[in-house]
Design goal:
The chain has 12 helices and 12 strands. Helices cover 44% and strands 15% of the residues. The structure holds S-adenosylmethionine. The active site is at 258 (proton acceptor).
């Protein structure tokens, strides 16, 4: 167990991700004119998405963000309506500040965000998409230099969060499968807390080269029990979307689902469920939208960042639990916070 938690660096990650939320706001006011449309009449999420010709993913990024900013709200009928503050972004309102917001409308980040919202992401991605390996196309996760940079970019976050996550995961003897495990830090910390257990880290080969180096550093760190880790960790190079997954007692999906669209998330939940032994557990460490899809702001900003960089977005706990249930798992109602606006949820495989 951790005796004392290190300071939460959420103020840093919130400012980092706010840039993407700002782009959404300016795009909405000055390019999509959402406030003018909703000033006429409140509309359901589907109706406004259809009117703007937005696909499901951009709509599920944009509208929760505008609710979190307290500019839109879901009314009693479940339709999106302007809030008291949001009224002043409609041009029909005499003292509106839509023009003031619009001074930034030609900012390259805003213009790019508008395009991505319209096209549900990049129209073409010859350089591949960060953190994503799907099919035969080029993936940065299979390029030695790009995979190293991206994996090391996540190392600081994983180093800080992994001791907290490991202290909250179940303690048990058995096997942990850390799917898309990246640096492997979540596994290393969990194994220190569970000396009778073993683990497999599944990821792309170029990522696992970096993870192996980080394990060597971890072992050399003089942490009690660290030397025994080498014999307890297996590195498994593979494709989680297509390869048969090894059977396990615990499966960890850390910052994994948020890189993928909804259909892939359901497919992954099904695959993970098949890999978990009866009585085993699926744990998800991620940042979750409110089930009402109206915030929190830190997560809607993060969702905008993920929309920009990956094939995914942030999802609500209700969305995750829906996938788990369809995959034959029993979701628990636990919601456990870690740091930097992340948390844990988990589900059990029936005996
Ligand atoms: C956002 S990172 C998360 C890494 C780690 N779980 C963490 O929280 O630090 C996503 C990981 O998914 C891996 N990944 C992407 N597509 C994959 C695939 N098809 N099969 C296996 N791993 C994949 C990437 O290589 C990357 O390491």
């Amino acid at each position: 167990m951790l005796n004392e938690l290190p300071p939460d660096l959420a103020p840093v990650t919130r400012h980092l991700r706010a840039m993407f939320g700002s782009r959404l706001l300016i795009a909405t006011v000055s390019h999509f004119h959402v406030f003018d449309i909703l000033q006429q009449e409140s509309l359901s999420l589907t109706e406004i998405s259809n009117k703007l010709q937005l696909a499901e993913r951009p709509a599920m990024v944009l509208f929760p963000a505008l609710c979190a900013m307290d500019l839109l709200r879901f009314d009693e009928a479940g339709n999106l309506a302007l809030t008291e503050t949001g009224r002043y972004l409609a041009t029909a309102e005499k003292s509106n500040i839509a023009g003031y917001v619009g001074l930034e409308k030609d900012d390259p980040g805003v213009v790019d965000m508008v395009e991505r919202l319209r096209n549900d992401g990049l129209l073409e991605a010859p350089q591949g998409i960060s953190f994503v390996k799907e099919g035969e196309g080029f993936s940065p996760m299979d390029d030695p230099e790009l995979a190293r940079n991206l994996t090391l970019g996540l190392a600081g976050r994983a180093r800080r969060l992994s001791p907290i996550v490991a202290s909250k995961l179940s303690k048990r003897e058995g096997h942990l499968l850390d799917v898309a495990g990246g640096t492997g830090f979540y596994t290393y910390e969990w194994l220190l807390n569970n000396p009778g257990s073993t683990a497999t880290i599944l990821d792309r080969p170029a990522v696992l080269n970096v993870a192996q180096e980080l394990l060597n550093e971890f072992i050399d760190s003089d942490r009690p029990g660290a030397t025994g880790l080498r014999d307890r960790v297996t590195f498994l190079a593979g494709d989680m979307l297509t390869d048969t997954l090894p059977q396990t007692d615990l499966l960890l999906a850390a910052s994994l689902f948020h890189d993928w669209p909804t259909e892939t998330c359901q497919m992954l939940a099904n695959r993970f469920s098949s890999a978990i032994r009866p009585g085993g557990e699926l744990w998800v460490h991620d940042a979750f939208l409110n089930d009402a899809l109206d915030g929190p702001l830190a997560v809607t900003d993060y969702s905008a960042q993920l929309f920009w960089n990956t094939k995914g977005r942030c999802y609500s706990r209700a969305e995750y639990r829906g996938w788990f249930t369809k995959a034959g798992l029993l979701p628990t109602s636990d919601t456990i916070s870690t740091q930097m606006d992340y948390g844990l949820i988990w589900a059990r495989k029936p005996l």
